């Protein structure tokens, strides 16, 4: 049965997260309903990053298998966009290699978190930027960030206990001062446990405002204690930016 | 009587424009109500750019005179932001020089217009970017833009007849390909007549998509005929970026 790949973007503000939940408006629910309208039968999808309520995506990847193999891919893309409306954009529809699964084939995920340190928020970007309204010691935050790089048990930064292990490999954690715009935090890992990016950003924020001691970073990491991190950054500043696959995932 | 300057930003989506209108929700109405709540009496304001319904601002300037001269400016800023909510941000409150008037003292206005040419819109920026969903010939648009620079009678680009004259001096009209983001059009002039930026952007869009002939630019400009420009770009892509004064306008 042919496998298809969808590249999608969404404004998470109006959704109870990506994953389908009975009685709630979710991205998966809207997407599968739209797919079911345009294709025959029930369409079950797999997703690279099950983003939480309020979290956005600009490079989310979804896959599904379907026994029809003769439909016009760009026509399906336009049809989905027509049904879904402005909060969800289907950027591309493509035929994937056999066995491609958006979740299990992914080798890395990359997230962007935006922080506005200026006194008053920018009204145009307020929906996807966390306005903290105070200066942060970005240099100290960057030093602490370096300690988190590499393979660790990130239990201190997982808001719920992962099914198997909380060991993850963090390949990038970079803080960039915005050029007239918000401060950017970029995080890339093979995978993230629940609320891991937001817990890391919350911790870095506590470092940057002088609430947490940067000297404690190794003990915070080693504790594997979810109570070790006081602040979880709010969801609306977070955007799933991109997902990587060893192969392009296209047939 | 001391004169005060407010630097403000707003998301124009939810307002019937800047200028106060009876029974409608406007930026000026919200702002003057908030000023009246925090200061004594009725506060009448002057504004640099009377933006239309749906147009945004990141560098709007407002002035008002008030006989109290001992209030804490940053406290007033925070107080206004507390009342106004997230759609309007007061970026700064300052004491201006005697006789400063946000509208009549202004020597130039600068606007940014954002155009998304990609097939599917970015859901996060859809509120302040015009999604045209097609490639545009930016080089041809730039050539035409150069013909509009300088002092001209811009009657062809004024949606209503100006009180006095439709002669304006256009100092900048630049098109920049977005680096992964939307295409930017930057326009700066001593002043703009009604819907002039949106008419210029609409005309450039018609040039860029091959609907209007770039060879006609001089005759379109010379005609001073409001019917000469077919397309007026929608308001939500437009943002008042900055306003210039010969003097800083601060006491």
Q: What would your notes on this structure say?
A:
The structure is a homodimer of 251-residue chains. With 251 residues, chain A is α+β, with helices and mostly antiparallel strands. Chain A folds into two domains: 3-104, 2-Layer Sandwich (Alpha-Beta Plaits), CATH 3.30.70; 107-242, Pseudouridine synthase I, catalytic domain, C-terminal subdomain (Alpha-Beta Plaits). Chain A is 22% helix and 29% strand. The longest helix of chain A is centred in the C-terminal third of the chain and has 13 residues, at 196-208. In chain A, 42% of the residues are buried. The mean pLDDT of chain A is 94. The interface between A and B is medium-sized, with 24 and 24 residues.
The tally of strands of chain A reads 10
Give the CATH topology of the largest domain in chain A. Alpha-Beta Plaits
Largest interface comes to: A-B, 24 and 24 residues
Give the overall pLDDT of chain A as a whole number. 94
Number of helices of chain A: 5
């Amino acid at each position: 049965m042919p496998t298809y790949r969808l590249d999608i973007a969404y404004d998470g503000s109006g959704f109870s997260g990506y994953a389908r939940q009975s009685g709630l408006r979710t991205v998966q629910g809207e997407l599968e309903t739209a797919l079911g309208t345009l294709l025959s039968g029930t369409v079950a999808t797999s997703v690279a990053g099950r983003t939480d309520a309020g979290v956005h995506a600009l490079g989310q990847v979804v896959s599904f298998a379907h026994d029809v193999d003769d439909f016009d891919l760009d026509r399906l893309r336009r049809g989905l966009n027509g049904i879904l409306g402005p909060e969800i954009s289907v950027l591309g529809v493509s035929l994937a290699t056999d066995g491609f699964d958006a979740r299990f084939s992914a080798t890395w995920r990359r997230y962007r978190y935006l922080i506005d340190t200026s006194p008053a928020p920018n009204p145009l970007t307020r929906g996807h930027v966390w306005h903290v309204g105070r200066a942060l010691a970005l240099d100290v935050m960057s030093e602490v960030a370096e300690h988190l790089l590499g393979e660790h048990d990130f239990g201190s930064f997982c808001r719920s206990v992962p099914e198997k292990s909380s060991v993850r490999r963090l390949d990038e954690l970079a803080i960039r001062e915005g050029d007239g715009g918000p401060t950017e935090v970029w995080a890339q890992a093979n995978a993230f446990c629940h609320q891991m990016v937001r817990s890391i950003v919350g911790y870095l924020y506590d470092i940057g405002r002088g609430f947490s001691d940067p000297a404690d970073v190794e003990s915070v990491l080693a504790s594997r204690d979810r109570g070790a991190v006081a602040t979880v950054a709010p969801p609306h500043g977070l955007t799933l930016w991109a997902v990587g696959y060893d192969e392009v995932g296209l047939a």
